[in-house]
Amino acid sequence: MAKAAKKKADPKKAAKKKAAPKTVGLAAPSTGPEALVDIPPRNTFNQNLTSASEATMLQILGVPGAKTKDCSPATGAFKQRVVARVDVGPFKVNGLDIAVQSLKAVFDEAEQQIPNVVAAVKNDGMLCVRHKRMNANSFSNHSWGTAIDLFFGTDAVPQGSSKTHRGCLQLAPFFNKHGWYWGAGFSGSSVDSMHFEMAEQTIRNPPKS
Ligand SMILES: [Zn+2]
Q: From ligand 1's centre to the CA of 113, what distance in Å?
């Protein structure tokens, strides 16, 4: 009763209160796929999947080119496996034939359940023959075009961050289902939530086309 009386007594205050959420909404953190959220516990993703080792990549796909800091051209027998400018749904990519095909299946499936995420996802690079950012002695798996970096909004989440774009977190189950490892599972300063790659298990036992 006292409450009702108060409201009635001060309609100006009530109007002010009603307008407040608009201002708060502008400053509030985004709830879309570009929102930054914590990487969840390691045991909640990448089940039975590990990152593909350089030894396995070299054994199965061969030397992809020069182990440089920036992108080098693909060379040798490996070059014959590269497909260029293939539409995988949200964008076009260059990469290994089976990885590009699998990536298209990932996005096709995600499109059915989280179309807003697929509509907003951006490609920060797939094929790039180079060494790892954290280890110049080792080829990055981008070298064989079996890895892709994804982001949302304006900026990529840097390697080493314990955060992820919510969109990457939302896409992770689709990647995992198709045998891709999510880089959010890398340890220490190597953690890389924008990075997805065909897992060791999938490189060794690729999907039949
Ligand atoms: Zn990457």
A: 25
In sequence order, the β-bridge partners of residue 151 are: 122
Ligand 1 centre distance from Cα of residue 24 (Å): 36
Q: Are 154 and 138 in contact (CB under 8 A)?
A: no
State the distance from the centre of ligand 1 to the C-alpha of 50, rounded, in angstroms: 15
Can you list the domains of the chain with their CATH numbers? Answer: 35-204 (3.30.1380)
Q: What type of residue sits at position 137?
A: N
Surrounding residues of ion ligand 1, Cβ less than 5 A: 147, 149, 195
User: For residue range 48-99, what is the model confidence (pLDDT) as tens digits?
Assistant: 999 999 999 999 999 999 999 999 999 999 999 999 999 999 999 999 999 9
**CA of 66 relative to ligand 1 center, distance in Å:** 18
pTM of the entire predicted model: 0.86
User: CB-based contacts of 178: which residues, under 8 Å, 6+ apart?
Assistant: 102, 105, 106, 109, 202, 207
Q: How far apart are CA 91 and CA 31, in angstroms?
A: 23
Quote the CA–CA distance of 132 and 130 in Å, as a whole number: 7
